[in-house]
Specification:
alpha+beta; SH3 type barrels; 6 helices; binds adenosine-5'-triphosphate
Length: 242
Amino acid sequence: DVHTCFITESTNDLVRAQGAASGGVTRFCLAEHQTSGRGRRGRIWASPFGSTVSLSALWQNGEGTASLEGLSLAVGLAVVKALETLGARDLKLKWPNDVLWQGKKLCGVLLEVYGDPTGECEVVIGMGINVRLSEEQLKSIGQPAVDLFRVCDKSVSRNAVAGQLINTLTHLLDGFGQGGFRLFREQWCEYDAFRGKEVTLMASTRSVTGRCMGVDEQGGLLLETSSGIHVFNGGEVSLRQS
Ligand code: ATP
């Protein structure tokens, strides 16, 4: 069930406004342009007209299914797999929610959960993929960003990107619903941008520096500090290379 629209404020809002997910069917919504696309904690996500694929999925998480902690990571993996089939190489995943190429951001993932995250809930999964932006558009983003045209060194059709994403994500959500992030952990670690590197995790009130040791079976970040290995969860923290 895919809905496409020309211009909307946010595909995450639109997919939810169109009604509840039911019967295990994931609904998708695509837009040419988001006027108020957002990242985590209210940050702006740029999706200039005709330059990106903005795709949101509304997924129902059944009662008692696996923890949602790793879903954002698993979605990032699905994006990487979908883009690889279109010719992208050397993609990396930055915990918890970005796809990078040569340290530049190619795609962002934003999950929003409605209901009880440990039980029955609806999850809106938003993905923004840069397909072809001008130098000026990339520069105006405020942190290093890249598009698929530069990654693949050729034009990539936005239809193909959307089709592959929907296909890959549908399979992934089936698997995630049955077995959780455990099924995807090993593959995720193959693409880990920061494995073995010194990083600083920043939360609003404090920061922690340590060495990245991968992720656990729930998708929590394992960080080795002078006091041992600690697990961090994605909600309120940001990762930066030290
Ligand atoms: P964190 O490390 O905490 O996840 P983040 O900078 O990746 O931080 P997000 O909320 O994931 O934050 O994404 C929003 C940020 O992404 C914006 O503040 C901006 O710097 C950047 N951004 C916005 N639009 C784009 C885009 N089209 N392509 C790449 N990066 C973008």
